[in-house]
Amino acid sequence: MKYTITLLIILLHSSVFGQPIANSRKQEIEKLTEKVYSAKEFQRIANSLQMSIDELSDYPVIFPVKKPIRITSGFGIRTHPITKKRKRHKGIDIAKAKGTPVHASGNGVVIRKGYDSGYGIYIEIEHSGNFHSFYAHLSKAIVNIGDTVNITQPIAYVGNTGRTTGSHLHYEVRKNKQFLNPTDWCYCLVGILQNKL
């Protein structure tokens, strides 16, 4: 009987039958990525930990639209197309036709959805490690606050709501109060997978 109980305890704490080992690994990854802001540093940690696709999917690591052909406005200082003033662009603008599906760039929870005079219809998703992805100028949002979303899940459609000069997706990646270069994060998963080959 004693050995049966011991075996049961071991099985319940193994990664096959129970969650504690998986939760422990998730906590280890969270701790190591706590102070990570650059995609390059995240890739280094992901490679050293040999993170699985499931683990990587908890972060905003892919483009939010399929076949992104053209980034019409990059991250950083630019001349605003409407005001013509030099201003910091906190994300990237991806040219796509109105109605093109927008996908979650990682697993997470929708924490904001609404309308803003500048951003138009927008959605914000919180991911692991306190990373956030932000999608704006949407024609329609198809998820709601509190929804859990999976990487590549359709969440909205490209539009030109708010202050725009045409149909496109404005996409941001944030951590705490810092805006990160989304382009680096959009190529993150591809870079990690290429490194594994």
Write the layout of secondary structure elements.
Elements: H1 2-12, H2 20-33, H3 39-49, H4 53-56, E1 71-73, E2 76-79, E3 86-89, E4 92-95, E5 101-103, E6 108-116, E7 120-126, E8 131-141, E9 148-149, E10 154-158, E11 168-175, E12 178-180, H5 182-186, H6 188-196
Antiparallel strand pairs: 1-4, 2-3, 4-11, 5-10, 6-7, 6-9, 7-8, 8-10, 8-11, 11-12
Helix pairs in contact: 3-6
Note down, in words, how this protein is organized:
The chain is of the alpha+beta class and 197 residues long. The chain has a domain at 71-196: Glucose Permease (Domain IIA), CATH 2.70.70. The protein contains six helices and twelve strands. The protein has helices at 2-12, 20-33, 39-49, 53-56, 182-186, 188-196, and strands spanning 71-73, 76-79, 86-89, 92-95, 101-103, 108-116, 120-126, 131-141, 148-149, 154-158, 168-175, 178-180. Strands 1, 4, 5, 6, 7, 8, 9, 10, 11 and 12 form a ten-stranded antiparallel sheet that branches. A two-stranded antiparallel sheet has the order 2-3. A hairpin with a 4-residue loop joins strand 7 (120-126) and strand 8 (131-141). Helix 3 (39-49) runs parallel beside helix 6 (188-196). It is globular.
Record keyword descriptors for this entry:
197 residues; alpha+beta; ten-stranded antiparallel beta sheet; Glucose Permease (Domain IIA); two-stranded antiparallel sheet
